[in-house]
Amino acid sequence: MRPSERAPDQMRTVKFTRNYTCHAEGSVLVEFGNTKVLCTATVEDRLPGWLKGKGQGWVTAEYGMLPRATGSRTAREATKGKQGGRTMEIQRLIGRALRAVVDLEALGEFQITIDCDVIQADGGTRTASISGAYVALCDAITWLQKNRRLKKNPLHGQIAAISVGIFDGVPVLDLDYAEDSKAETDMNVVMNEAGQFIELQGTAEGHAFRRDELDALLALAEKGIREIMQAQQQALES
Amino acid sequence: MRPSERAPDQMRTVKFTRNYTCHAEGSVLVEFGNTKVLCTATVEDRLPGWLKGKGQGWVTAEYGMLPRATGSRTAREATKGKQGGRTMEIQRLIGRALRAVVDLEALGEFQITIDCDVIQADGGTRTASISGAYVALCDAITWLQKNRRLKKNPLHGQIAAISVGIFDGVPVLDLDYAEDSKAETDMNVVMNEAGQFIELQGTAEGHAFRRDELDALLALAEKGIREIMQAQQQALES
Amino acid sequence: MRPSERAPDQMRTVKFTRNYTCHAEGSVLVEFGNTKVLCTATVEDRLPGWLKGKGQGWVTAEYGMLPRATGSRTAREATKGKQGGRTMEIQRLIGRALRAVVDLEALGEFQITIDCDVIQADGGTRTASISGAYVALCDAITWLQKNRRLKKNPLHGQIAAISVGIFDGVPVLDLDYAEDSKAETDMNVVMNEAGQFIELQGTAEGHAFRRDELDALLALAEKGIREIMQAQQQALES
Amino acid sequence: MRPSERAPDQMRTVKFTRNYTCHAEGSVLVEFGNTKVLCTATVEDRLPGWLKGKGQGWVTAEYGMLPRATGSRTAREATKGKQGGRTMEIQRLIGRALRAVVDLEALGEFQITIDCDVIQADGGTRTASISGAYVALCDAITWLQKNRRLKKNPLHGQIAAISVGIFDGVPVLDLDYAEDSKAETDMNVVMNEAGQFIELQGTAEGHAFRRDELDALLALAEKGIREIMQAQQQALES
Amino acid sequence: MRPSERAPDQMRTVKFTRNYTCHAEGSVLVEFGNTKVLCTATVEDRLPGWLKGKGQGWVTAEYGMLPRATGSRTAREATKGKQGGRTMEIQRLIGRALRAVVDLEALGEFQITIDCDVIQADGGTRTASISGAYVALCDAITWLQKNRRLKKNPLHGQIAAISVGIFDGVPVLDLDYAEDSKAETDMNVVMNEAGQFIELQGTAEGHAFRRDELDALLALAEKGIREIMQAQQQALES
Amino acid sequence: MRPSERAPDQMRTVKFTRNYTCHAEGSVLVEFGNTKVLCTATVEDRLPGWLKGKGQGWVTAEYGMLPRATGSRTAREATKGKQGGRTMEIQRLIGRALRAVVDLEALGEFQITIDCDVIQADGGTRTASISGAYVALCDAITWLQKNRRLKKNPLHGQIAAISVGIFDGVPVLDLDYAEDSKAETDMNVVMNEAGQFIELQGTAEGHAFRRDELDALLALAEKGIREIMQAQQQALES
Known about the structure:
Six copies of one chain form a homohexamer. Chain A is of the alpha+beta class.
C-alpha cells in the first residue's frame, strides 16, 4: 500500500496554471499533487560569449528551491555562496531536455532561460520542473512569434517527465516524498510525444534492479508521461 | 496624476493569505497590489554560535527575489555566488524590525527565521516583506505556544511598514514600480501599533527634501500603516 | 550624564586633514574625536560597463575597517572572502549621499571612487566617512578642474552627516561608541547646506521612538551638521 | 565504421595498475585505451559532521581533471574558485555507485574517499573512474582488514561501468572522444556482478532513442561490463 | 645616480611611532621614507583549531593595502572576494619571520595576530612591515607581561628586514618604488640581531645575478638592518 | 646520517620523461626520487587582457597537488573554493623563473601555460616542478617552431632548481620529505646555465643561519643544478 493510498500506476493530480506571474514571457505554475514549481521563461536577445556570432540561439535552465519549500528549512544557496551539486545536476538536466525539442538555429540569436523555482516540495520536483518548463517555453516561443521575431517555429516536439520507482518491492508511478525517501530504486524519465526517450536516469538506492524491473518501470513511466502530455496540451489550448 | 490613477493617500489593495504553503510554521503570501511576497517562518531549536548558552532566542530574516519577479530578468544570486548589497540591506532591515517587537529572552533558545521571497515585484517589496513577515512570525509563535514550548508570549507589539515618496512634486503613499523608479524622494517607514517609529529610511533621489515634506510623508505613512495593521489583524483572526 | 561628560548637544572635536597621503587626487583624514577615517578620492577615466557611452560620469564609494580599528579584532573581509552586510550598507549610503550633490553629466565620463577606511573606530564611522568623503571629493574635482578636464563644476551642493540618538532617555548629538552601544534609538542624518535632507536613517534599538523624540533628534542633527560644514569649509579654504 | 576501426561491440584495451602511487591505502591507474585516470582511496577515522555517532561509516568520491588532460586546456577549477556542474555530477555518481556495494555499518566509523583524477582524457572518464575506483576501494578495505580495524568485510558486491551510445545510427560499446562528441545518444551504465543495474543514465544528444535502441545499448553494456569485471578480478588477484 | 639622489648604501629615513592607534595591544606606524605601514598586534586567548591543546601559542600576520596607497588605485581585495597571491606570499613571510624569534611554548595558549596595513606605498612595504611588526609584537608581549599572563618572556631575538637590489648596474640599499619597478634584481633580507639570516628572497627581474653581486647585496642588507635595529631599539626605549 | 643514507652532496635519481601524456604541446614527467610531477605546456594564441596589443607574449604557471600525493590526504583546492597561499607562492615562483629565460617579445602574441601537477610528493616539489617545466617549455617552443609560428627562438637560457638545507647541523643537497620536515634551514635555488642566480629563497625554520652556512648551501645547490641540467639536456636530446 502506498502512503498516499494511490494505485501503483496512479499519478497525483497534475495541473498547469499559465500566466501565473505577470512579467515573464512564459510563466507557469506546475503542480504534481503537493509539489509546486514556478517555471518562468525569459527571452533575451543576448547570448553567452561562446555562442556569439554562430547564427543560433540557446535554451538554458536554472533551478532553485525556496528555503522552506521543504519539511525542514534548507539553507539558501545565495547565502552559502554557491549552488550545490544536486541543484547543478537538476538544472543541467532541465536545460538538456528542453534543447532536445528546439531547433537552435531556427530560434535565431535569442536566449531563452527557464527558471524553475520550487515553491513547495513533495517529491518529483525535477520532473515537475521539466514538464512545466516545456509549457513556459511554448509560451515564450509564441510570444516571439506574436512579436514577429521568428521566421519559423523552432519547437519540433513535446516533452514531459515523470519519476518511477520501486517502493516496498512494487513498481510505482510518480513518487511523492514519503515514497521517494524510502524507495529502493528511483528513476526519472523524460520522453517526447512519440514515446521515445530523451533522458533516462535510474539509481538503485537500496538494492540493484533487475532487467524485468526496469521494463516495468519504463511501462509505468510511459503511461504517466502520456497523461502529463494531455494536461500540457489542455493548458496550452485553454 | 499617479500612473495608477490612485489618490495621493490611497494604498493599493493589501492582502494576507495565511498557510500559503504547507511545511513552514508560518507561511503567508502578502500582496500589495501586484507586489507578491511569500513570507515563511521556520522555528528551529538551534542558535547561531555567538548566542549559544545566553538564555535567549533569535529572530532573523533572509530576503530573495525569484529571477523573473522583475520586468527584466535579474541574475540569480545563488549563481553569482553572493548576495548583493541591496539584498543584505533589506534582510538586515526586516530582521531588525521584527526583533523590535520580540522579547528574545521570553522566546527561549529558539531561532525563528523569516524567509521573504518575492514572487512578483511592483515596488515596495521590502515594506510588503516586513508587513507579511510579522503575520508569519505570529503564526510561528502560536505554533510554539500550541506545542507548549513557551512559558509566555514573547511578542509585545505589532509592526507594519509602508513606503512613501514625492512623485512629481506631490507626497504619495505606497509607491508602485512606475512611481518608485521616478520618485524624487523615497522613504520606508516601519511603525508599531502605537504609531511609534521602529525604522525610518528616507533617501533623496532627485532633490533634497525639506522638513515640511518630511512631515507630509510621515503623516501619509501613518495612515497607510494603520490600514495595513487592520488587514494584518483581520488575517490573523480569520 | 554622557560617558564623555559632553553636553547633550555637544559635538566631539571635528578635524579634517587634507593631503594626508600623497598619491590620491583627494586624501582626507577626518576625525570625530577618537574616530579616524581616511577618505581618498580616485579619478579614473573608465566607467562601469552599464554606464559606458551614456555621456555621464559616476561617483561611488567603498568602505572598510582595519582589523584592529575596533576594541576587539574584527576579521579582515578580504580573508573571509566577502564584504559583510554592514559594510555594503554603509558604502552604498556614502555613494548615494555624494551623488546627491554631483551633476553626473557635468562630470563627463570620469569615475570618482571614494575609499573610506577606518583607521580607528569610536562610533559614528559612517557619518564621519560621509563628511570626510565630501572634502576628498571636492579636492578630486578641483584636481580635474586644474587639469582642465571639466567644462563646468559638477558639484552643486555641500553635504555632511552626523549621528544622533536617545541615550538614557535623553536626545544627544554625535554618539561615541560607549553611547552607541547602549542607545535606545540611533539615527544617521545627511543634510545639504540648505538644511534639507539627503538621507535619514533612524533605528529603534531598545524602544520605538515617538514623533516628538524624532523632532528633537532632527534639531540636534541640524545643529551638528552646521558645525561640521563650517569645519569642512575651513579645511577647504586653508 | 568507428573512427578507431573497432567493431561495434569491441572495448578498448582495459588495464588496471595497482599501487601506482605510494602513499594511498589504495592507488590504481585505470586505462580505457587513451583514457587514464588515477584513483586513490584514502581511509580516515573521521566522518562528516552529519554522520558522527550514527555507528556507520561513509564512502565518498571526488573527481578532477588535470588542465591538459584534454585536447585544449581546461581551466583549473581551483583557480576558478569552484567545481563546475559536470564535475559535481560525476563525483556524486561515483560515490553513489560505490556505496551500492558497501555495508556502511560494517565499515564502522571510517570514511573512505576515492579521488579520481583524470591524467589523460579520451572519452569515458566517468565510467573508467567508477571501474578503477572499485579496485582502489577493494585495496583500501583490504588494508583495513590487514590492520585489524574491521570485524567483517563491508563489501558485498562488485561494480563496473561502461558507456554505450548510438554513433552514426549504430549502437556501439565504449565510446572514445571522437565518437562521444558526435554520438546521437550517450548512455552510462553501472552494473553489479549479477548483471543488475546500479545506475543508468541515458541522454539523447541528437535525436530521441527508441525502446529497441535502448535494448541494444543495454545488451552491449552488459557485455562490456563483464569484460571489465574480469580485468578487475585479474588485477586484484595479481 | 639613484632617482632619490641617495648614496647606494643610504637608507631612507626610518621612523617607528608607537601607540599610533588606541585599541590594539601593540600599534606601530612604521615609515621608510614615503612608505607608511600601520602594524597592530592583537592578543587573543583562542587558537586556530589545529593548535588547540598542544600547550603552545601562535604568532601570525595578515597584510593589506588601502586601495589608494598606490599611485593608481588597486582594487580592494574584500570586494574581489579573495586575497591575491602577492598578499598571501607577503603575509606568510611576515608570520614566519616573527615566529623565528618567539618561543611558542613560552607564549602559552595565546595567539598574537599582527596586521600590517599599508597606508602609503613607495616600495619596500614587506620589509617595512616586518620591521614594524617586530616592534608591535614587543609591545603586545610587554602587555601580556604587565597583565601577568606570561611566566617567562617568549621573545628570544630581534628581527628587521630590508630590500636591496641592483639598479642601473649598481647594488643599492632600500629600494623605493622608482627603483623597485626598474631594478634588475630585487632581494629581501630578514636578519636577527646576531646578523644571521632568517629569510633571504632574491629574484632576478632583468638578468640573472652573479655570486659577487649577491655578496655585495648581502653586505648592504646587513648595514641597513643594523640601522633599522637601532631605530627599533630607540623606539622601544622611548 | 641522512634518513635515505645518501651522502650530504648526493642527489636523488633525477629523471625526465617527455611526451608523458598525448594532448599537450609539451608533457614531461619529472622525478626526483619519489617526488613525481607532471609538467604540461599549453600554447594558446590568446593573452591575458592586460597584455593584449603590446606585441609580446606571456609565460605563466599553475601548480596543483593531487589530494593523495601526500602521506595524509590534502583537501582538494577546487572543493575548498580557493587556492591556498602555498600554492599561489609556488606557481608565482615557477612562472617568474621561466620568464627569466624567455624573450617575451620574440615569443610573439602567444601564451604558454605550464601546469605542474604533483602526482606523488616526497619533498622538493617546487624545484622538481621548475626543472620539469623548463623541459616542457622547450618542447612547446619547439612545437611552435615546427609549426612555423615563430621568427626566432625566444629561449635564451636554461634553468633548473634544487632545494638545499641544514639537516641535523649538516648542509645537505636535495631534501626529501623526511629531511624537509625536520630541516633547520630550507633553501630553494634556481640558477641558469651560467651558474647565475634566478631565484634564491632561504628560510630559517629552526635557527637562523650564518653566512658560512649560506656559502656551503649555495655550493651544494650549484653542484645539484649542474647535474639536473645534464639530465635535462639528455632528455631533450633523446
